[in-house]
Amino acid sequence: MQKMTSCCVDVCNTNAEKSSPFPDRNKALTITSWRTAASPIRCLKPGIDQVQIPSAILTLVIGMALALGGLWIGQNINLLPIDASANAPIYDELFKVLFTIGSILFVGIVGLLVFSLIRFRRRSGQLGDGLAIEGNLPLEIFWTAVPAVVVLFVGLYSYDIYDRMGGMVPLAHDHMGGAHEEQIWGGISSGSIESAAATNVLPVEVTAMQFAFLFHYPEGDITSGELHVPADRPITLRMEAKDVIHAFWVPEFRLKQDIIPGQPTQLSFTPTRTGRYPIVCAELCGPYHGGMRSTVVVESPEDWDSWYGQNAKAAPEEETLTIANA
Amino acid sequence: MTISLPPETSSPPRLQPSGWLRYFSFSVDHKVIGLQYLVCGFVFYLIGGALAGAIRTELTSPVSDFMARDVYNQVLTLHGTVMIFLWIVPVVNGAFGNYLIPFYVGARDMAFPRLNAVAFWLIPPAGLMLITSYFLTGAAQSGWTAYPPLSITTPATGQIIWILSVLLLGGSSIFGGINFIATILKLRRPGLKLMQLPMYCWAMLGTSILVVLSTPVLAGTLVLLSFDIVAHTGFFNPTLGGNVVVYQHLFWFYSHPAVYIMVLPAFGLVSEILPVHARKPLFGYVTMVYSIMAIVVLGLIVWAHHMFTSGTPPWMRLFFTIATAFIAVPTGIKFFNWLATLWGGRISLNSAMLFSCGFIVNFVLGGITGVALAQVPFDIHVHDTYFVVAHFHYIVFGGSVFVIFASVYHWYPKFTGRMLNEDLGRLHCALTFIGFNLCFGPQHWLGLNGMPRRVAEYDPQFTLINQISSVGALLMAISTLPFLWNVIHSALNGPVAGDNPWKALTPEWLTSSPPPVENWIGEAPLVEEPYGYGVPPGELDLSAASGRDLWSSGK
Question: I need a labelling partner for B64 at 20 to 30 A (CA). Which of A211, A297, A306, B336 fits?
Fold first, then answer.
């Protein structure tokens, strides 16, 4: 009983003071028994088990190495694409925390498993059973409480992240379109919408259909197959699906929103980095689902102004139409 | 323990076939039905695997060049449906449940043997119907989730056949669930207490509760969907005033618990396998039982995490995030208990043990990505991407299928009376483990970097990683060859196993291999300590101790 407490708590690197600093008799028993069976010569060596580093210290060192290793992995291994919107760095922060915790847990558990398989494997000629230890209540409480605390911490932290990304902003009913009491659905609204910058929001209407996205700028009456947006200005997409469910996903923005037929949906974001990024449909929408892609072009405000000016002012009817048909 | 079981007496004119033909008959023997489930499931596993091979072949190049795009969607729909409804659910529940539960409760058969046979015989026709729909009319092509309006607008015949097969398979599952609940609660041998049952009984009790509570919801939903398709009603059709998100809620009300229907029995099987081969009692029996029940309760209230991008209100996202993440707590308890079971054991590194440990490694990774996916902001980026594909394959393949193989290696001597070849078994395990991780590990990266799921064509920057993934799939396909050869060859020529080759204590081993028709000649044994392995601390097992042990430990 005592041995189980010490050994298992060891790995979790807490309550180390509880564990006995000396190997107990049972351990010695297990080891001596295979020795006699396998090679009696080993018994002549000075006992590794008898003169041993106290397990509390070993535990502490392993735990520290695990924690530092996990932190290093979380900070230094980047699995994500470039970040190009205001909420992408916030997302990456969450990702690093999750990746760190996940790495520590995974390496710790797999390490413990592999160690057990090697250390406690049945050697040839060995008979008999392991130790009849049926449980340990303090240990059970310990490994219920620790994951519960970790999960609660992660939950609260991700709630905070979600709030900062604008996910908890209540969506207002639509008053702009003149439609009375039309419910607007949505996911993330960029937090900046609520701030002073809200005056400068660029609205874009998105129509998703099998198998294309169409973008319409109501203010300039531009229709385009690509989404052109200026950097550092909040954008609000008002999205509608014509036929089946689609999803608007820009991996570099870390944003995704289903577009559901019959549910006008709103999504807000602020692009931060100029470049061309893919818009991907992420909900199975038919045979050409994989081909339902477009591009979001994030331009500097000047470049975007000239693009907008060219298409909005100078655009006669037929040019707009050709773009729409393209 | 006697129960009334009319047909199976050894009177000369047998009412049922007794040779190999019984496996093709309407047998009511729970062991025959269990093996029918197992072999039938394995056949569908090979079909589903071939479909997976077709998917991975298509994805070796970024353009759609191996098959037509609509065929690709049919293939991925069939792959998901076959693997879930015809392989994992029937095998972890039906096969091992039917074979083991009557032994574990000390009964001579299930509570309702005929219902049991009916439940099995619903599966082959449903499966055949599903597969043949591909050749006759074209199969469903809206994914195993069949979200409307896509499922309403794709060709109707295939979709209707899909719905009919899933309804039949769901019915089979419900019959099985009722049978398990009745058997575990009412057919226990007198004197056997609930808290003395092997852990697999508890897992099956929890699973069956989930089956009985949630499968009817799926059935009702699919009936409404079929009305939308055939009779042009508007339950889920937005152009007729329906609501597609309601379908998603109803669908996931079943289909999230379905994940637990696939993994809880696997948890139970692992809890049986580890103590035997580690020669130690199962650690923390009582907390294991409570954690199963906690998973059952929590599993019913997490479904909306599949809809974080569907325009759900913020409070709902918060609730389902927390509920989902908390499932990690009871699940974690089970994993720590298994690790503690191994600690200090005398572990035989045989195929059953290695597959179980492979399960632990894979499932821990799948669980960690699961907790991450429960976080709304994290999910919003990776929802419906290859990250999710990787996550659930780590759960259902890395988890359940690894356990199915571990269980086959563990119980094969009981099924057939012969031992499997351990070297081939370890080769099978190594190939499966490497192939699996090579196939699904890189898919996490694909999802994070912008590859959505269910696509036949993708951004060319992902070509290399997809090819690596396909090589892993090929290895997994190859890994079934030593297994198949081993299983077939050992059935005929394997060394004779004897009644109890693992020196196990659970009741199925306390009879001959293979067991007689009513499980035991004479009275059923009363096993009050199914995990009574091991030497109590401070005592010596005299049969296994040498003189030096006695001397050195001061006895």
Answer: A297
